[in-house]
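hey
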């Protein structure tokens, strides 16, 4: 089991080296002011005027100048090559919620890799913030107060079934799968209640749903275990 580098009772912002969507970093920091960088995300953080509390990665994307500008005790280098920097972070962070910026929208392979990591670590909630959307792995039971008419897209990361209230097209007992049926562009018609047979369903919502989703995740957060 990997040692947790960040272990906190509040949410954090995690910044990657990809191009952060306009306003995404500011939106994340307004909710979670403690900032952690994934490898080259440290350069993005410093360029935006923010000193990260920790930098985690294999350091193949971080310049010597950036490393010199950050206190040595905040640099956590892991040479393992079978994990991405995003996974190095997710597996070593224990907080109620991570808000991730700079992990989607630039390179498709990086974005798909991040989504795969989120599916492998369902016990560490994470919301990725993009230019138009937020994306997160849905718990098996979820209630959301979303604006009527809002878009709700579902993408399974494995075989999963579910049930719903508050969506125009109910998902009850549909056999979702990555190579089968997916749920693109459903529409909110009332308070949304979703149940899934496993934590394998990604929810993709408009970015203006961020505050509601953060509230729901933080309300579900259990007390942190002792170190």
């Amino acid at each position: 089991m990997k040692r947790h580098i960040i272990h906190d009772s509040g949410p954090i912002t995690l910044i990657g080296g990809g191009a952060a969507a306009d306003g995404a970093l500011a939106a994340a920091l307004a909710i979670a002011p403690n900032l952690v960088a994934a490898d080259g995300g440290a350069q993005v953080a410093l360029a935006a005027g923010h000193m990260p509390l920790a930098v985690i990665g294999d350091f193949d994307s971080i310049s010597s100048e950036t490393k010199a500008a950050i206190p040595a005790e905040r640099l956590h280098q892991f040479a393992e090559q079978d994990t991405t920097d995003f996974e190095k972070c997710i597996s070593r962070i224990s907080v109620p919620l991570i808000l991730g910026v700079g992990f989607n929208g630039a390179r498709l392979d990086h974005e798909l890799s991040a989504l795969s990591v989120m599916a492998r670590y369902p016990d560490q909630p994470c919301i990725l913030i993009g230019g138009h959307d937020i994306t997160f792995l849905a718990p098996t039971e979820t209630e959301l107060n979303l604006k009527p008419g809002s878009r709700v897209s579902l993408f399974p990361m494995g075989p999963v079934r579910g049930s719903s209230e508050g969506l125009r097209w109910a998902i009850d007992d549909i056999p979702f799968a990555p190579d089968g049926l997916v749920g693109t562009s459903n529409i909110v018609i009332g308070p949304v209640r979703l149940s899934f047979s496993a934590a394998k369903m990604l929810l993709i919502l408009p970015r203006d749903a961020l505050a509601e989703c953060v509230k729901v995740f933080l309300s579900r957060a259990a007390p942190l275990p002792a170190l």
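The mean pLDDT is 92. The helical segments are 24-31, 41-47, 64-69, 85-90, 108-120, 210-220.
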